[in-house]
Write a structure and sequence with these properties.
Length: 758
């Protein structure tokens, strides 16, 4: 009898609500995730390539069956928070199922030890292959003692003491449907071809070991699985312990609070478990697909975002792991685009996925290189050239970013500007740029830093009046001539737009963290007061922060998953950012650490978002606990580690560069030249300041003074990084009037500009 229902229901991934993620280190190229007490996505041969949806379990006896994932009555037992070795114990009516998950360090295989207790019960593993990164196009079949699947040149084998098996199409002839319709395993379909397929086997023993392995051929996968089984669960487990103990050499995370210490150790595991081995230094944002059980997204979060990867590398830097930070920089040097920026995100092998551009993603690698050089650990090689290219990109394309850090809107954001200014300054102050390039980059950083409040700070708004603040930093100032008087479209909320003054966020905290503004700056304090009033949400597990008002990235009000629209929920990583600001002011950061720990999931992992409304138990949504967004989030664990170490050791955050902070907090960095660009025109010039009119192509400046008197034309000259400019001063005049002509395009700028004496 042939399996029916081809090609099956549309595939989805597993829930992103993970209990654990792990890998064996060694030479193995396998990463695994656990969720709801079972095996979820397994990644092979890189952290960017999920190959199964899940491996679940049905326990059954005559007249009774349960799928343990749906029962969700389980405990997680960890040997060490900083080790991937865990056991899960499921308990139900008359049965107890023990599961141990052990990745093989030397083979692309994972062992699953099992012990089923209960009179008359049998175990039925359920495997959903998603080979090639998708549930479509898979072929599954059954051999003696083995469940197999293949798609193209990717294959898997699940071996164990199976007495029979079945291959079917999801939603029609799969094993779960068999139990749902017949109350027992009655189907034994030998094969299901070219569809969204599933496998099920009946285990003939109450205790034993399963082996899941991956290779380019089914024969290779079977060989790896048989080899792992031959070595045995305990032998493999001993090697995993040894490798992770070696990885923890020199790791000091001792602290006075056991819960916070355990989360710090677990955060170290997360950082290590998200790095690829074929492409060392590639750190993906999360081994999960947000709301994955509702979609078949090829990318999910198992992609490299430069920002997230560098945030994690800074946490490694705070731990003193200089060699690992060097790997990240070497990887970034290899994946940088020719013009100096990085793709919005990309697969571990460097292939771009999304196509957006964010200036902060070009700035952060520069900051990391400078920080590593400050500590004497900068590797030789292409890093200097990488920094020069990135600085050139920032100089050419700034200060307006095509996307903010949330990848939503173009404009001028304090977060992005802070990273850009600090990176341009650091490139010179730490010797990556020299001569004319270094002088130009530092001049540009000084100018943009001095204009920060002009672009991103408002005063006397209705929000300020309502909360007794004088003014506040906005999350984003839109591009264009209206600037802070314009409007910003809220992504994921169709038809919703807000004035910039209403866009309250925590982006300005990066100014403090990077040493561009004092934590006691009155503007910072007013902005903190407003953010605490509008963005902070109290939950039973702690307090967390929204990204900004009217955010649409999160579950709907009724708990339905995000589907392109919804309501943004609270973010633990923002609690970490707010906690670092408190630390830098000399306040107690312990409440922020406790909140981040309180918002973890069942397995102690920090999610991207926590639920901030009334509980919806049927959707597994509870106040202060993870939503269906990414869990774990690499960036959130990095933020926790940095705050934990700052709290324990009293040291500044690793992103803060001493030379940059000394320049801008020490009273230096006053601009001697104002850089005029048409996207951010300048209105006034202080005495003694020069005016550099600059463009990204050659131009002629048509120029006059004091109301277009003494008109003349001045051809631009080359500037560093492929820019072109004309340097002017007021020469005793009260104003300069000018426009630009582009000979290469035979076109005028179409607008006159005026700069007055301040």
């Amino acid at each position: 009898m042939e399996a029916f229902g081809k090609p099956g229901l549309p595939p989805t991934w597993a829930t992103s609500d993970k209990d654990r993620v792990g890998t064996a280190l060694g030479t193995s190229r396998l990463w695994f995730t656990l969720g709801h007490g079972i095996l979820n996505e397994v990644f092979w041969p890189s952290v960017g390539r999920p190959q199964i949806r899940d491996l679940g379990f049905i326990v059954a006896r005559e007249g009774f069956w349960r799928e343990v994932k749906r029962e969700a009555r389980y405990r997680i037992l960890e040997e060490d928070p900083a080790s991937p070795l865990v056991e899960v114990v499921h308990e139900g009516e008359g049965y107890r199922l023990h599961l141990a998950f052990v990745p093989d360090p030397g083979r692309d295989a994972l062992l699953v030890g099992f012990r089923l207790e209960g009179e008359g019960f049998y175990l039925y593993p359920l495997l959903a292959p998603h080979l090639g990164g998708s549930g479509w196009g898979n072929t599954a079949w059954v051999e003696e003692g083995a469940l197999l699947a293949m798609k193209g040149e990717e294959a898997l084998a699940l071996l164990g003491p199976f007495v029979r098996g079945s291959a079917g199409y999801v939603g029609f002839s799969d094993g779960w449907q068999d139990f749902a319709k017949n109350g027992a395993m009655t189907w034994t379909f030998p094969r299901a071809e070219d569809g969204n397929v599933a496998l099920m086997g009946e285990v003939g023993e109450a205790e034993g070991t399963l082996a899941l392995a991956f290779a380019s051929t089914p024969e290779g996968a079977k060989t790896l699985a048989k080899s792992a089984l031959a070595e045995g669960l305990e032998g493999v487990r001993a090697r995993v312990r040894r490798l992770w103990k070696e990885a923890q050499a020199g790791l000091d995370l001792e602290g006075p609070d056991p819960e916070l210490q355990a989360l710090a150790r677990r955060s170290f595991l997360i950082l290590k478990a998200h790095e690829d081995r074929t492409y060392p230094g590639a750190l993906v944002a999360s081994l999960s697909v947000p709301w994955g059980n509702t979609q078949d997204d090829l990318g999910g979060y198992h992609l490299v975002w430069t920002r997230d990867a560098v945030e994690a590398a800074f946490a490694l830097l705070a731990l003193g792991r200089l060699e690992e930070v060097g790997r990240v920089l070497a990887y970034l040097a290899a994946t940088q685009e020719g013009d100096g920026h990085w793709a919005q995100n990309f697969f571990p092998d460097g292939r771009p996925y999304w196509q957006g551009v964010q200036l902060d993603e070009a700035a952060f690698p520069v900051l990391l290189a400078a920080a590593l050089k400050e500590r004497g650990g900068l590797p030789e090689g292409a890093v200097r050239a990488m920094v020069r290219r990135a600085a050139g990109f920032l100089a050419r394309e700034g200060p307006v970013s095509p996307q903010d850090r949330w990848e939503e809107n173009p404009g001028l954001s304090p977060f992005t500007l802070a990273a850009t200014v600090a990176a341009l300054a650091a490139a010179t102050l730490y010797g990556f740029l020299e001569g004319a390039e270094g002088e130009y980059a530092l001049s540009l950083a000084d100018c943009w830093n001095a204009r920060m409040e002009e672009w991103t700070y408002v005063e006397g708004t209705p929000l300020d009046l309502a909360h007794a603040t004088r003014g506040h930093y906005v999350r984003l100032c839109p591009p264009g001539p209206l600037g802070l008087r314009g409007r910003v479209e809220v992504r994921n909320r169709e038809g919703v737009s807000l004035e910039p003054a209403a866009l309250v966020g925590l982006e300005f905290l990066e100014l403090v963290r990077l040493g561009l503004r004092s934590p006691d700056d009155a503007r910072v304090l007013d902005s903190l007061r407003l953010a605490d009033a509008l963005l902070r949400v109290e939950t039973p597990t702690g307090f967390f922060y929204h990204r900004y008002p009217e955010d649409g990235y999160g579950e709907h009000e009724d708990g339905r998953p995000f589907d392109g629209g919804g309501k943004g929920r609270a973010w633990p990583l923002l609690t970490g950012e707010r906690g670092m600001a408190a630390f830098l002011r000399g306040e107690d950061s312990l409440p922020y650490l406790r909140s981040m720990a309180g918002g973890t999931g069942r397995g102690g992992l920090i999610p991207e978002q926590v639920w901030d409304a009334e509980p919806i138990p049927e959707r597994n949504l509870f106040p202060g606990k993870p939503t269906g967004s990414a869990q774990p989030l690499l960036w959130a664990h990095a933020e926790y580690l940095k705050l934990y170490l700052a709290w324990r050791e009293g040291k500044a955050p690793p992103e803060r560069l001493e030379r940059v902070a000394a320049r801008y907090l020490g009273g230096g960095g006053k601009p001697r030249v104002r850089h005029f660009r048409r996207e951010v025109p300048l209105g006034t010039l202080a005495p003694g300041e020069g005016l550099l009119v600059e463009e990204r192509e050659p131009f002629v400046l048509h120029l006059g003074v004091d109301g277009w008197q003494r008109v003349r034309d001045v051809a631009s000259e080359p500037l560093p990084f492929g820019l072109h400019g004309v340097l002017l001063d007021l020469e005793g005049a009260e104003s300069l009037e000018f426009t630009l002509y582009y000979p290469g395009r035979r076109r005028w700028a179409g607008r006159d500009y005026q700069v007055k004496r301040a």
